[in-house]
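Case study 2.
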Amino acid sequence: MTESSMHLRILLPSTVFADLPEVEKLSVETVKGSYGFLPNRLDCVAPLAPGILSYRTGATESYVAIDHGVLVKTGREVVISVRHATGGVDLGSMENAVSREFVNLDERERSVRNTLARIESGFIRRYMELHRE
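Prediction:
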């Protein structure tokens, strides 16, 4: 890692999404607005809002769509922890990837909600049966 770069790690609950040792600049959406990070920025912690994270390595600008999370910057180390992330180099392909990911999330969330509703109704039914006895 050089003096003019940062080490960026993007962590998901079950894996490391990205481990980038030579990031020159980083931009994220926080709950208070958009912020840019350079290697010499002061250390900080920031809650992240869902949005597009962009970073530059060399001549390449890359983008990652992220969910709610938190950013921690200490020295030249930047760690971002989020629930979901989808990456791409250009914004055009990013839109399609994000759309697919959110459709999958909606379907999974709907399935989980239906399962929870069945469990709750079964619990209430059994509770009422026990209460009558």
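The chain has a mean pLDDT of 84.
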